[in-house]
Amino acid sequence: PLSESVPTSVQSSENRFYSPLVKNIAAAENITQQELDTVVGSGKDGRVTKNDILKFVENRSLLPVNPEPIKTTKPTKSTNAVPVSLNGEDEIIEMSRMGKLIAHHMVESVQTSAHVQSFIEADVTKIWNWRKKVKDDFTKREGENLTFTPIFLEAVAKALKDFPMLNISVDGDKIIKRKNINLGMAAALADGNLIVPVIKNADQLNLVGMSKAVNDLARRARASQLKPDDIQGGTYTVTNVGTFGSIMGTPIINQPQVGILALGAIRKVPAVIETSEGDFIGIRYKMFLSHSYDHRVINGALGGQFVKAVADYLEAWDSNREI
Asked: Which of 64, 102, 125, 299 could form a disulfide with 285 if both were Cys (CB 3.0 to 4.6 A apart)?
């Protein structure tokens, strides 16, 4: 249970740490830094916990603060065309505050961006065999596991350099072309929720650097040790739905970005192999890439060319590459 003792004062933002989760909730609820500094923390060294910030939100109307003018928006309350009927065996489960925030952001993104998808299948047999060959030596030398994720992120970063109009944000009727390629990667938190830490300047990293960045962010996400800067500044997002066995997905765009790529599970499948001596049937490792993008600013040709470029980089993998 949380401590019931109430500190007589709180720290200012200059010397007070706020977890990424608390920062996210504060941003979603339009809580100013001044308001956040007034929240009494019940965590270690007076840190503000998830429960602290949610309790603050619930009781916000009772606090002596001067709220900013409320913008007129559409009601966020879910409406059903047909009333939901219940019977005696049904159980009603209240959504958690975090669940409500996630639901709000998902609906907001769909209402903001005109989502459309392009799909392509990539043959990653060369990558599968190459990784199998080098992963043990890599772990011994670097002290890190070599997963598929940094390999895929490298291909995405290359494709974004080829198609910079995917590395943009939309601000009203203006397009902001991002100079840096900062890749967000969906990662699991200890409580089962997802967060999107960001690899800054991903196109400037070699595969060793990319692998270490991926492992570091994933590890700190699970331990709830991400810093606010770790989850800010993303320009494009990648999510690995294959982790859960899904072969493809239709992910929702992380606003204000304009695209997100879902990586499907790698499967061993029979495939036609074209050679100079004719076509043959062989066993290959393949995966689907699912690209969701904002049709307001990205047409189907550009969206399709981008995901094709990612697949091309994966299929052109150098089996003799040194790492």
From this structure: 125
Question: What kind and span of H or E run contains 321?
Answer: none
Signed CA dihedral, 57, 61, 62, 66: sign only: positive
How far apart (Å, rounded) are the C-alpha atoms in residues 106 and 76? 11
- Tell me, yes or no, whether 84 lies in a domain: no
Phi and psi, residue 209, nearest 5°:
-65, -40
- Residues 174-207: tens digit of each pLDDT: 999 999 999 999 988 877 778 899 999 999 999 9
CATH assignment at residue 25: 4.10.320.10
Closest to 260 measured CA to CA, from 150, 120, 115: 115
Determine, yes or no, domain membership for 271.
yes
Cβ neighbourhood burial of 191 (10 Å; 0-12, 13-18, 19+) = exposed
pLDDT in tens, 247-259: 999 999 999 999 9
pLDDT digits (tens, 9 = 90+) for 137-168: 999 999 999 999 999 999 999 999 999 999 99
Residues spanned by the domain of 50: 11-73
pLDDT tens figures, 278-304: 999 999 999 999 999 999 999 999 999
Predicted TM-score of the model (pTM) = 0.74
Collapsing DSSP to helix, strand or coil, 295 comes out as coil
In terms of domains, do 43 and 155 share one?
no
